[in-house]
Amino acid sequence: MRGKQVSGKTIFVLCLASFLAGSLFTSQIWTQQSQSNEARIPNMPNHINRLEAMTQLDCDHKRKLVEGKSVDIIGEVTKTHQAIESLDKTISTLEMELAVARTSQSGTALLQLPLEKASNHSLQKAFVVIGINTAFSSRKRRESVRETWMPTGAKLKKLEKEKGIVIRFVIGHSSTPGGVLDKAIDAEEEEHKDFLRLNHVEGYHELSTKTRMYFSTAVSIWDADFYVKVDDDIHVNLGMLVSRLARHRHKPRVYVGCMKSGPVLSQKGVKYHEPEYWKFGEEGNKYFRHATGQIYAISKDLAAYISINLPILHRYANEDVSLGSWFIGLEVEHVDDRSLCCGTPPDCEWKAQAGNLCAASYDWSCSGICKSVVRMKDVHNSCGEGDGAVWNVDL
């Protein structure tokens, strides 16, 4: 305060210098902050552009889903449904194979099976095994089948190898093994190589037992998707049959046939009399729904089930009723396929002309083709699909 007074000019110069120094310092601070912000949020417009692009893509995707054809959506749903069915069948198959393995290895099992059956690697792979139920007295019926819808010789082997379709006449042995009847079948087998021999004594009243033994034997030889039983007086279009079965190949536990529910006959002496009629309720009741015995198919799981439980499956008087009873308490899909029970001409002929080819034809009045030895060829000529049809089926 007591110092020398400063002139006004000096004060002015000092103020000007302070102002310039402050301006320079402030400019540098703002520059550093700007650079710092740019480093922390690089290229903000690019982020905004990318966000807008992603939003646009999402909108476009949703718009396409909405505007897409319904056929594509249905197709995806169908594929998903088929995948689920296939997985369900795979699980069911594994469960059945595990049961077979356990049965094979258990000394106290209900049925002793060979150990190799526990593994499908030892079995012959096939799509379908068709067992033609026949008898010792049916040589002419077998010949009528060989001359019409069933391939023979090299064609039979080719069908088995290339298409996975196995066809065999199914028969057991006589009450005197090694007798004349058995030797006749042995000679016929040597000639045609188209028999499946069962460890079973033949007899009309033993059909339920024979059916059990057929499926048990077949599943121990062939690892097939389906096993078919058909009588030797039925006309079959092989191409149509396998095409119908292929629709269900991804489903577990399938039972395919012409489903019926006939009356339980309690009166003795009549055809199809049921001695155990009392089990089905009051007189006049009907059987549970089951496939008619002329022809039917079951999936591999059900054939394995029969094989595993062979000794404890009850046998009723009628073979088709017995089979139906084995499945009635299980989770089984019953497929009522009317193409498996067409009539003989003119019925199957009219259907063929209308484009509804039959898989099997017979006469209800005879439970087969009446006089099949004589008429099988006429039915084949009128209602057959053609010899090349089965080779064109995609399996």
Low-pLDDT segments, ≥5 res:
37-45, 102-120
CATH architecture of the domain at 124-391: Alpha-Beta Complex
**How far from one another are the termini?**
115 Å
Largest sheet: 7 strands, mixed
Structural shape: elongated
Count of helix runs? 12
Looking at CATH, which topology of the domain at 124-391 would you report? Spore Coat Polysaccharide Biosynthesis Protein SpsA, Chain A
The mean pLDDT is 82
Helix content: 40-55%
For the biggest β-sheet, the strand order reads: 3-2-1-4-7-6-8
Number of strands: 9
Report what the structure shows.
Strand 2, helix 6 and strand 3 form a beta-alpha-beta unit. The radius of gyration is 39 Å and the shape is elongated. 47% of the residues lie in helices and 15% in strands. The protein has a domain of 268 residues: Spore Coat Polysaccharide Biosynthesis Protein SpsA, Chain A (Alpha-Beta Complex). The chain is an alpha/beta fold and 395 residues long.
Give keywords.
395 residues; alpha/beta; Spore Coat Polysaccharide Biosynthesis Protein SpsA, Chain A; 7-stranded mixed β-sheet; elongated; transmembrane helix; transmembrane
